Structures are given as structure tokens and as C-alpha cells.
From TrEMBL:
Keywords assigned: 4Fe-4S, Iron, Iron-sulfur, Isomerase, Metal-binding, Pyridoxal phosphate, S-adenosyl-L-methionine
Keyword check for Nucleus: no
The name this protein goes by in its record: Lysine 2,3-aminomutase
Residues that bear N6-(pyridoxal phosphate)lysine: K348
Domain Radical SAM core: 120-336
Residue stretches spanning the membrane: none
Cofactor: pyridoxal 5'-phosphate
Pfam families: Radical_SAM
PANTHER family: L-LYSINE 2,3-AMINOMUTASE (PTHR30538:SF1), LYSINE 2,3-AMINOMUTASE-RELATED (PTHR30538)
InterPro entries: Aldolase_TIM, Arg_2_3_am_muta, Lys_aminomutase/Glu_NH3_mut, rSAM, rSAM_sf
Molecular function GO terms recorded: 4 iron, 4 sulfur cluster binding; isomerase activity; metal ion binding
Binding site for [4Fe-4S] cluster: C134, C138, C141
């Protein structure tokens, strides 16, 4: 039996709950940003930190940033260090361990960077890394070197550089029709600064779609204000991709934020990362995907966790990803099944196992139950007929 904490130890003190915070403060995203938790002492107002967590926080100081909003802290199990929300936000010793083949930029953002912020990896679309800041520094971030590493950045110069060269690059490349604002989290900027960037993009005739990658609907849904949505709606078509990883993150507050976006004509997609110990069970992933559909968020990608320095302890095997996908396909609504991908310098590589194979008779098909049938080559031809194939005339 663990020792009973003394009355003076933080573990013995009552924890803060959302209900104790005045409603006007709790509903103000700026209050949460001002009150972000970034020390053990602040964390102990919300959770009972373990010695391992306290050691990880101490040893990562000067190496990795960490902070979390009171809202996100309120979703954590205060007594369970394996809580799926807690694991995503509180530093762990796994971040400081060395793993084979890790890289600070495995997807090639710096390799494909064309200006201070523009990364041009695909023919008709680019990303703009507009900030390093986030409301919560997720411990599994693919861009951990850019957002969380104290000495790291993907910027060619610095975040303070103006956007002239970035916008000019996009204007000079009319093949670019889709721009994704990311970072960091673009919604870390105030509405005025964000509008300045978006209006600059909308002034470029060849830009058809503006997308925003933001975890604010998950980490601090109070940020999704009516004023923000009204501003975004002035620049349609605007899409938002967010990042729910576990059903615990879907709350009345996040549901209201999603509803507000949708009512202003902003479609919302979700990109989940497969994380060891967080969502690597079929039942958890099914629950997440069906809950996303319930709040009208379209599952988009299931990312295999990248082998990023400081993140590799979250990686599963690809086989685990296949197991998850087989547990989704056919078991839930088709458009609730995300595409399982591995992101590399070659791009996003689809990783789902095929449900068919070519055999001499034609195609061997396999359904979600594992049942098989063969369809004849004459009924469903696999190959196109040859050029000299006649029609009998």
C-alpha cells in the first residue's frame, strides 16, 4: 500500500476543478492562456503528479517547453498518470530516451521549405508554418523540434519576419491552389493578426482553398468565438482540420466550438495520431470515430506516429495500425473510417492492407469479417482490353 500523504504534501491538498473557477473566466480563452500550467507546483493544483512526472519535468527543463491550459488539465484523471489526456500533455521520461532512427524532421519540412514559412512538398498545395506557439505543447508533436525544443526551429529566419516573401512565393506559383496554415497553432494569434495573413492569401487569385490546422477545439475550445468564426467566414472557402486523439477530449465545450464553426460554413476534419498507450485499442478508436461523426467532424487521417526525436516512445508497430484499421472498416459508417498513412519525405504513404489480391481466376476479395470470394476475370476485368481487341463486328 502506498504511503498516506502528509497534510503538507501537495498530494494531500484538494485539487482545483473547473466548477471552482468563475464562469466568466472559464469561458475566456485569454484567461486560460494567461493561466497556463508550466511548473510542477501549478500542475499539482489539478493532478497528483508522480515522482516520474516530476523527474521528467525537471530533466526536460531547458530542452523542451511544456505548458497546458486549465481547460485541458480539467480533462485529466488526477490520480492516473496513464490517463490518455495526461500522457499527451505532461512530460515523461520517454521523451529523453534515445531511440533508433529518430529525426527532428522526418517528414522533410526543412528540406521542402522555400521561404521563411512556406513548405512546398506537393504540386498544388503548400503549408505555411506561421508560428511556433501552441496553447498546449503536445508531447507527441511531429514538429516537436519546431514547437517544443527550446533551441529548435523550422523557420529559415525567425517568426517575427513579415509575410511578404511568403505571400509572394505563393503568388508567383499559380499552381498552388490550397494553402494550409499551421505551426505551432495559427489560432495562437489574435484575430487581427490572423486576418491579416488570411486576407493576404485571399488576395492571391490562384488560391482557392485556405485551411487552418488547429488543436484549439480540443485543447481550448473557448478560443472558437463567434467573432473568430465571423472573421473566417469572410474569406471562404475556409476549412479547419483539428486533432482529437481520444474520446475523453470530446466534451460539451468542444462540441459547441465545432458547432459554431459549422454554423459559419467552416467544414471540420480530424487528424488522429496513433499513440501507444493512448488510443492503440480498437474499441477506443471506434468510440473516437463514432463520437466525431456525432459532432459532425469528418475523420480524415489516422497518422502512424512519426519516429521523431523525443516522440518515439509513443510509436506503435505498423501491424498495430493494421489491426486498428481492420477493426474500423465495415464495423462503423464508411465515411467515419480515416485513411491510415505514414508521413515521409516522399509524402503521405497510404498504409492500409488491401482487401483483395489478384489470382489466376480474377480477384480474391475479402470483407471485414474475413469472408472471401473470387470474382471472375470475365465479370470484373482486372486489366484493360488490348488495343486490337475487337467487338465482333
Amino acid at each position: 500500500m502506498p504511503p498516506i500523504p502528509s497534510e503538507t504534501h501537495p498530494a494531500a491538498l484538494p485539487l482545483t476543478t473547473a466548477a471552482e473557477v468563475p464562469e466568466d473566466q472559464w469561458n475566456d480563452w485569454r484567461w486560460h492562456m494567461r493561466k497556463r500550467i508550466n511548473t510542477v507546483e501549478k500542475a499539482q493544483k489539478w493532478i497528483r503528479t508522480t515522482p516520474a512526472e516530476e523527474k521528467a519535468i525537471a530533466e526536460s527543463a531547458g530542452k523542451y517547453r511544456w505548458s497546458l491550459t486549465p481547460y485541458y488539465a480539467s480533462l485529466m484523471d488526477p490520480d492516473d498518470p496513464l490517463c490518455p489526456v495526461r500522457q499527451q500533455a505532461v512530460p515523461s521520461l520517454g521523451e529523453l530516451m534515445e531511440y533508433h532512427g529518430t529525426d527532428v524532421d522526418p517528414v522533410g519540412d526543412m528540406f521542402f521549405r522555400k521561404t521563411n514559412r512556406v513548405v512546398h512538398k506537393y504540386p498544388d498545395r503548400v503549408i505555411m508554418l506561421i508560428t511556433e506557439a501552441c496553447p498546449v505543447y503536445c508531447r507527441h508533436c511531429t514538429r516537436k523540434f519546431h514547437t517544443t525544443d527550446v533551441d529548435g526551429t523550422y523557420f529559415e529566419k525567425n517568426e517575427g519576419e513579415d509575410f511578404t516573401a511568403d505571400l509572394q512565393y505563393i503568388a508567383d506559383h499559380p499552381e498552388i491552389r490550397d494553402v494550409l496554415l499551421t505551426g505551432g497553432d495559427p489560432l495562437s494569434y489574435m484575430d487581427g493578426k490572423l486576418e491579416e495573413i488570411i486576407s493576404g492569401l485571399r488576395a492571391i487569385p490562384s488560391v482557392e482553398i485556405i485551411r487552418i490546422g488547429s488543436r484549439f477545439p480540443v485543447l481550448l475550445p473557448q478560443r472558437i468565438t463567434t467573432e473568430l468564426c465571423e472573421m473566417l467566414a469572410r474569406y471562404h472557402p475556409v476549412w479547419l482540420n483539428t486533432h482529437f486523439n481520444h474520446p475523453k477530449e470530446i466534451t460539451p465545450e468542444s462540441e459547441q466550438a465545432i458547432d459554431r464553426l459549422l454554423r459559419h460554413g467552416i467544414p471540420v476534419g480530424n487528424q488522429t495520431v496513433l499513440l501507444r498507450g493512448v488510443n492503440d485499442e480498437v474499441d477506443t478508436m471506434r468510440k473516437l470515430m463514432t463520437e466525431l461523426l456525432r459532432i459532425r467532424v469528418r475523420p480524415y487521417y489516422l497518422y502512424h506516429c512519426d519516429n521523431v526525436t523525443g516522440v518515439a516512445h509513443f510509436m506503435t508497430s505498423v501491424e498495430k495500425g493494421w489491426e486498428i484499421m481492420e477493426g474500423l472498416q465495415g464495423h462503423i459508417t464508411g465515411f467515419g473510417v480515416p485513411q491510415y498513412v505514414l508521413t515521409t519525405r516522399l509524402g503521405k504513404i497510404p498504409m492500409s492492407k488491401p482487401s483483395y489480391e489478384q489470382v489466376p481466376e480474377g480477384l480474391l476479395l475479402r470483407n471485414y469479417k474475413g469472408q472471401e470470394m473470387v470474382v471472375d476475370q470475365d465479370v470484373y476485368p482486372v486489366t484493360e482490353p488490348s488495343a486490337d481487341h475487337g467487338d465482333g463486328g
